[in-house]
Amino acid sequence: MGLGLRDPSAAMRDFLQQAGGCAVVDGGMATELEANGADLNDPLWSAKCLFSSPDLIRKVHLDYLMAGANIIISASYQATIQGFEARGFSKKESEALLFKSVEIACEARGIFQSSYRNGPYTVGADEASSRKQPILVAASIGSYGAFLADGSEYSGHYGKEVTLQTLKDFHRRRVQVLAESGADLIAFETIPNKIEAQAYVELLKENNIRIPAWFSFSSKDENDVVSGDSVLECTAVANACQNVVAVGINCTPPRYIQGLIFTIRKATDKPIVVYPNSGERYDADRKEWVASTSISEEDFVSFVSKWREAGASLIGGCCRTTPKTIRAIAEALSTVRSAPQATSACD
């Protein structure tokens, strides 16, 4: 099922109702590609697999669907026309790879739905198992910093030479292509600052993009995104955009999520999406995740009911989370999906 071209907010509310009031978002893509043998030591990161091993991407999507995900996110986070062209692809070939990222996700959904008409049978409860599992495909768009591959996606500090227009010029064609790819929505992910959120809003309007979207920011605490910009101000930018059907947080330590949900709710009545990382820290110089304040998978999942009660309507995982994590989230939500959310207009 898709969100269609009708009122996007109403479509998202309908989707959430079909999902039992709260939807499960998938987990980390790169982690699982590496676990399946992919070498991602490349500026394109997981997007490299779009031309080197698309079968692995399809497998990861299927693994998350089997775990109970209602939303799978395409492997296009690091996929940019500029990045592909730097590897020798033509503009036409680069755009085709963007399309391919969504095609692979849609193929996985089709395979899953043809084999499991009523869901993955993982959540245990009879009523949950018999309910048809609604599935959306989200086209991922990563930040400008992700393309730079210099760690600035984790700081949002692009330098004074990078203006609003710079960001709009960089993202424009990518947004247009993914809006026409057949995805159900666009996931603008790991947004590190207010200016990039504003660039996305203006691109959606200027290019008459009709596909729904969500904006998820990366935060350093319960009040500010990683650049230091206010979460309240960033949420307000997203909230003002009609295309935006959910606002939230990703790639942020779990310990900040509950407070961030309360902060976001002050600035929007739209559904809140949260998919934190494992709590580990990414070392941009070493190009690897290092243990810092990471938590166990059991502790991660223990937060889920609190996030739901605080007002989150879409819950999943980001970097270093796995299908096992998502399965546990789906199982945890199966007991609270019908419970009311705090000050939420979504159920």
Explain what the structure shows:
GO terms for molecular function: S-adenosylmethionine-homocysteine S-methyltransferase activity; zinc ion binding. This is homocysteine S-methyltransferase. It is an enzyme of class 2 (transferase). It catalyses: S-methyl-L-methionine + L-homocysteine = 2 L-methionine + H(+). Pfam families: S-methyl_trans. With 347 residues, the protein is α/β, with parallel strands linked by helices. The protein has a single domain, classed as TIM Barrel (Alpha-Beta Barrel). 43% of the residues lie in helices and 13% in strands. Strand 8 and strand 9 form a beta hairpin. Helix 4 packs parallel to helix 6, helix 4 runs parallel beside helix 15 and helix 10 runs parallel beside helix 11. The protein is globular and about 50 Å long. The C terminus is likely disordered.
SSE order and pairing:
Layout: H1 8-18, E1 23-24, H2 29-35, H3 49-52, H4 54-67, E2 71-73, H5 81-86, H6 91-115, H7 126-130, E3 136-141, H8 144-148, H9 164-179, E4 185-191, H10 194-206, E5 213-217, H11 231-239, E6 244-250, H12 257-265, E7 272-275, E8 281-283, E9 288-290, H13 297-302, H14 304-310, E10 312-315, H15 323-334
Parallel strand pairs: 1-10, 2-3, 3-4, 4-5, 5-6, 6-7, 7-10
Antiparallel strand pairs: 8-9
Helix pairs in contact: 4-6, 4-15, 9-10, 10-11
